[in-house]
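Let's inspect one such protein example.
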Amino acid sequence: MSADISPTFPEELCVTDRRGNDRRKKQIPVALERRSGKDRREEKGERRRQIDPTTCERDYTNDEIEFMKAMDQYKRDNRRPFPTWSEVLEVLRALGYRKTAAPSQMPGLSTGLPPTAEG
């Protein structure tokens, strides 16, 4: 059974040659030309600073450096590129951190105390 069952389409729907009438070459007006090749920062005379978003180019305290090194060691030793919060807490405890003070206001923009396990 080798009957040809391929569908037939009207000729105006079948495009076999796409070399003409390229829509990308049409000159369509736009409100703001963004393809000029010039970088917007260059126009302002600014030079983009290379900032590492993970470090924000700031000076870390010794405690912060010790914690980052401990986390890095933990991730490498245990092949855990994304440790859970429980694992982060384990690393903190291994560094000797313990909860000894009463809770205080959360850092940043928060105005409340941190949540507790009870509520």
Summary: Residues 66-94 form one domain. The helical segments are 40-44, 62-78, 85-94. The chain has a mean pLDDT of 79.
